[in-house]
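In response to reviewer comment 3 from the previous cycle, which asked for concrete evidence that the modeling workflow produces usable outputs, we include below a single protein chain processed end to end. The sequence was submitted unchanged, and the resulting structure tokens are shown without manual editing.
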Amino acid sequence: MSSSNAGPAQNNKPTDLNHLLLIVHKSDTENETWDHALNEFISLDGRQSQIRDVRDFDYQAFRNALFDDISIPRNDTLYTRNQFENIKNEDTFANCLTQVQNGDNAVPIHNLYKLPHLELWSTDVPDRPQPRRSAPPREPQGSTSNQPQGSTSNPENSDRVRTSPPIDRPVDEHVEPERDPEDPDPDKSGSTDKDYDDGHTFLETLAPLGDANDDEWKQVCKFFSCKETDRRIKVLGISLALLPYQAYAVWRVFKQVATDNIRSYMIGDAPGLGKTGTSLTIAVIFAMLKTTYHEVRKERRTKNLKNHLPEIGDKNVCPTQGRRILCPCVQGGLSYDIVRALDDFPTIICSPPGLIRQWVQEAEKWIDHSPYSPSREINVFPHHHELGLLSLETRNRIAGILPRVGEETSIVKPKLNSSSTIVVLSSKGTVPFENLFGVVRPIASTKRVRQTKTLNTLGSSLMFFDEYHNYKGSKNSLTEPFLVLHRMKQRLRLPPMAIGLSASLRQGPTFFRPFVVYAFHSATTPQAEIGGLKPGELDRHCTDFDYLVNNPERSNMTERQRREQEPRQERVTTFLRNFLPQMVLARKRGRIFRGRRIAAPDAPVHEIRLDMPQGQTRTTFETMSARVKSYINARYNDEYETWVNEGSEGNPPDRARFYHRTVDGMSNDHRNSREWEILTKASCFPYVAYLAYNNLVHNNDLLVNRINARATPISRLLDPTRLFDPSQTPESRRRLRGYTIRVIDQFLNQSPFSAHLVTLREQSPKIRWVERRITELLRIALKPRGSVEVIQDFGPPPPDGTNIRHALVLSQAPVSAFISFMVLWDSFRRDIRRGRLVLQYAHSGVKQKPRADIAAYMQQDCEGGHPVKVLVSTAEIFGEGFNLQRVNTAIVTEVGGSYEKQRQAFGRVDRTGQTMRPLLYQLYDQQNLCERVKRLRNQTRRRIAESGQDEGGDGDPGILDLIDG
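The workflow returned the following structure tokens.
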């Protein structure tokens, strides 16, 4: 990222104050700045102004924000660096803005924000050099970010203090900061639409990405010792049978490392296709092969060959082969190549913290621990402060063996059967976990001085990266888990294999980078190219891909534009056609594998239009939408004027593309448009916009930190392990429920929204629709299982003998989820008190273990008289990772920025193992400008992904009508 904060000076000309940035440098520091758009401080009267005037801005609000955010006293003078008047009070503030507006002095254009900016200092240091500052969360031109997804700063957390980016260093020394999954999530869904698809036009269409040809399938069946016609493949040591497409994934991963000598691979199967089970099978098979190979070597060493083939011979079938995995005693077989390609180190799984428990639970289902199972000694251990840490005994068992003191080698060797240990930890836990294996060794000593060095004994053979899109790093840096992987590579004889798992391929080649880098660095024999890709070429393909996404093909393109577009598209197409089959396996539900469909196709999503009613709320939306449109048009006019002033070289800026980029900029950083921020957060409850616009609630009340402060004690009271302790008597449970209701009521009454709850509900057709759906679930629960009416309308009942069905209600914005809970809590108070309904509420303040407890509670079988369960959360918190097959109704109340994210959210209930009919509902409001824009973009990208064709016609044809209309 660029660290420069000042672009070329603009000629002295008037500056639109609506577009002015204020950048305040805090004294006594080289790095901290406070960046805000001046239009965030428009007064209530100023909002009615038709022509922007310096008196439209609230000076006291500006100084209060400075004091609250970076503790600059309200009366301190702010010094300018561009010969404008220093700011001491309201009058000098107005004078300074007048000078800026009139163009009395040059106002620099920020080279990243692309807006005029005014720098202010809290001390008079005009000769002080400008500090390095971090770039904004995302460049508006769609260039690749240096931060992993999820690590962007969050306006909702009032995180206005920036720090300078780390200086680029060699890859093994530079740690790219990433979102800390151990802390409460910043809840991206509430502050940004960083989940906007940047397009995956080619990724799902250029190659089958997962079907097996006849020759490959023969090799798969030879490895598993199964028939080519088997529909389910039983593996000794694995409790559950593999489906053919899963068996192919296992074989493909092993082939990658053992035959192709490429030590990284990515599995991008859709949600619910069993990536977790497939991954555990890979780890278990590897451990069993290592155990078997130790037996083979022992027999050959003692020349007591009873169960295996000799090292030299003409036979190619193990005497004890049977139906187990191909024996590694068969030289030239895949198993033989596997045990020679990877050492006997443990498997490490990097997982989002909230999914660690799920990995352990899945391991209990997949790994056969019966007395005579070959996998009975294989164990999965979580290493997390909430779920338990590895014991000293276990750590000693998996620690590698250091060379003797004095030996020149630094290679760490594995202990026997270390691969029988599988460790699951969070991405932020990788470095602390590695540090547990540090050993201090003396290197020289005298009578007075003793010199030592620390060696590390941690090794791994297989390292899985769950949700690998969180680990992308940047061009010159790696995230912590990949740094640990590279360090292990340096101290092991055979480098580990990196395996990425993700149901999302969004944003394309950028997310391949850490796996590509590791593939080249870890090759035991030099690789000239991998999947047609040469070292260092990926960045060019990332640039081309981003260009194509942000500049879709249009029918009215000029010849020059086409000449720019076509070679890029050809390069990207060629790259992906060669690269994806070598490095990526990505299957969708409903696709054909070996002539049979992979699971059922995705259940249909029912789009429900629910427009806000006529009245003052809609009028407020129309007013704010007009301001947003005006802002976007003004930005385009500035861009066009710049093009004219620079000599009109090349083609003029394309209006539609510019609109899309501006929408991205507003969505990814709400400071660019407060109106857009409010419209986004008011998507489920339109009256929120009226309250915020008229200052009936403070803007801070919409922020995630304020919401979490009020919601955290509520979630603790709703903890299912507290409310539904099996040791409770019915009477004690009833009393506890009554107490919980009273206390939660007290907390909810403290919210500023409680005074407006009735109007919030009345003005929200969406929440009233959700209420009707929950009422329907309560009615169905009392119906007999064989009710024809229920089965026809809502599908078959659950397999637990009841007719009780549950619902998942997801919002995009945290404030929407909070108010949804408030309204539903009030509307269904009687059913909650009677024990017919349980409301659960998960927000970013809920830590990982309680989230897992909520998921486990939602998954429990029901008995007669049990309640209907409804989980209210955001798509960011419960929209990916969790298995919720016991729930069959999923409602997304707001349109998100990504069609793929929507599928992820619905994939919590629409997944393999779901025995009921998934009922999926996307609610939208056609009167909300934000939702109309997002829905248009999602529909376009969905059409691209499903048709396999690039965007024709006018790209996103409605964007001009939406903004200019």
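The radius of gyration is 30 Å. We consider this sufficient to address the reviewer's concern, and the full set will be provided in the supplementary archive.
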